[in-house]
Amino acid sequence: MGRSPAAPPPVLPLLTQARAVLAAAVAADRAAGATWEEIAAILDVSSDTAARRYRT
Q: In degrees to the nearest 10, what's the CA dihedral of 18, 32, 30, 43?
């Protein structure tokens, strides 16, 4: 029998980490005085959506 191909790296843990890093970056930017409009422009979402997702 042939060898099984290597399993791809698990994606879900990476997505979880990426979301945590993004939330921390948004919090840091807000603490530094960035507006929801500025953050939203980078995330390509509305300012309401950015605020709703990341307001703490």
A: -50
